[in-house]
Fold:
Amino acid sequence: MYKKIFTAISVTGCMLVSTAHVSAGELIYRPINPSFGGDPLVGNYLLNKAQGQDTNKDPDMPDFGSFSETDLFLQDLRNTLVSDAITDAVEGEPGRTSLIESATLRVRVESLGGGGFRMNILDRRTGEQTTVNLGQTSAQF
Structure:
């Protein structure tokens, strides 16, 4: 008896479900992994992955691993001298100059006042001269 009632209820339920309005949409596959064409905004992931696999070396790129301790010390010393010259120019009165000379370069840092300075760099090998002006010279805001 219970079996007949259960069967009747099951059949009635299946009929109700099968007569209900069924709708389906289009299935669109969107890859999540950027390696398989995912979001184009994660292109930097692909670039980094490609650069990580790149085994080619640029022949013009310097090999920083070949610097000796002496080379690194001299580079630090040069950086400190230039930094001190710029600090003196920024903090000093207008017209104050500092001069740094090496076998290949001549760097002259001149205070312009108000925190500004001018740096003249002369390459002794080529004769090329570069001037860098930084900071305010006379404008008041």
Summary: The two ends are 99 Å apart (CA to CA). Residues 31 and 38 are 5 Å apart (CA to CA). The first helix runs from residue 2 to 19.
